[in-house]
Design goal:
The chain is α/β, with parallel strands linked by helices and 340 residues long. The protein contains 12 helices and 10 strands. The structure holds 1,3-dihydroxyacetonephosphate.
Length: 340
């Protein structure tokens, strides 16, 4: 394990004013996104959509790295430049989703385990050759009647730690993503409790597996009310609860925390990040690794039409810029009204 290199990649991923673009939707997930704009999910449409995002002028000011999907890592710009080489030349670090998705956990009804460890060492070696310098693995923890169980939390934490150790062996920085879902009618207090148990289990497992904490990025959910909870916590409450839990569980050795958006709107996820960064005196960089919250309006503006390529890029740039401002607490909701 080359600790110096891992640490320098991890730090670059959460460099000031920047964050990650999660563009690692699996073929199934991107089809759902394209369905919303009535666009067929062909390989060429998936490629041109990603090219639209990646070639946005100025994106590198606010985007430190992009999480790609296996197919995307092997695709190229229209001029033939492979995406990883194109991004690296712009100073954007290419990354790769390596998990195989959350599957039902046998013997534990209603809960899932993320698969993908078999053959992972060999896949990581290939991904490194293709240019990937960081990876992502998402564990999913659902809140509902009688769940999550301690067993499911620990099983997912164990898999995350095995993945993280294999990444570091391959010279790849692991994004460790334990996502407590915001679906359901649970309160923010319940989300705080489950997020707390989950993070404790994850850091116990990382420690047991000898993972080098200076060479990881944590990608957690924010502590937030369930979408269907009748009482919705305020944005300030979300910011305070999230930072409180992170302070309790995330060692200062971890260089950065890059949140997922998890179904929050674009404006909400940006404001939450900004409010957290205003709390000040934090031991780690607090950044973003948004999928939907960086792409939703850009996808809509592009709409699969070559004539709207530039409109899609302007919209994507605006979101990237506003999240860049949120990195130092300088985002204001009124900025949403600015033209793209
Ligand atoms: P969202 O920001 O849309 O939740 O996606 C981030 C991600 O990579 C989830 O694994």
């Amino acid at each position: 394990m080359n600790k110096t290199e891992l640490q320098s990649i991890a730090r670059a991923m959460v460099a000031p004013h920047k964050g990650l673009l999660a563009a690692d939707e699996s073929t199934g997930t991107i089809k759902k996104r394209f369905d919303k704009i009535q666009l067929e999910s062909t390989e060429e449409h998936r490629r041109s959509y990603r090219e639209m995002l990646f070639t946005t002028a100025g994106a590198a000011e606010y985007i430190s790295g992009v999480i790609l999907y296996d197919e995307t890592l092997r695709q190229s710009c229209a001029d033939g430049t492979p995406f990883p080489a194109y991004l690296a030349a712009k100073g954007i670090i290419p990354g790769i989703k390596v998990d195989a998705g959350a599957k039902p956990l046998a013997g534990v009804p209603g809960e899932t385990i993320t698969e993908g460890l078999d053959g992972l060492r060999e896949r990581l070696a290939e991904y490194h050759k293709l240019g990937a310098r960081f990876a992502k693995w998402r564990a999913v923890i659902d809140i509902g009647a009688g769940i999550p169980s301690r067993f499911a939390i620990d099983a997912n934490a164990h898999a995350l730690a095995r993945y993280a150790a294999l990444c570091q062996e391959a010279g790849i920085v692991p994004i460790v993503e334990p996502e407590v879902l915001m679906d359901g009618d649970h309160t923010i207090e319940r989300c705080e409790e489950v997020t707390s148990l989950t993070l404790q289990s994850v850091f116990d497992a990382l420690y047991a597996h000898g993972v080098y904490l200076e060479g990881i990025i944590l990608k957690p959910n924010m502590v937030i009310s369930g979408k269907k909870c009748p009482v919705q916590a305020s944005r300030q409450q979300v910011a305070e609860a999230t930072v409180r839990v992170l302070r309790q569980h995330v060692p200062a050795a971890v260089p950065g925390i890059a949140f997922l958006s998890g179904g929050q709107s674009e404006a909400e996820s940006t404001e939450h990040l900004s409010l957290m960064n205003r709390l000040g005196d934090l031991p780690w960089q607090l950044s973003f690794s948004y999928g939907r919250a960086l792409q939703a309006s850009a996808l809509d503006a592009w709409h699969g039409k070559p004539s709207q390529f530039a409109a899609g890029q302007r919209t994507f740039f605006k979101r990237a810029r506003l999240n860049g401002l949120a990195r130092t607490g300088r985002y204001e909701p009124a900025m949403e009204q600015e033209p793209a």
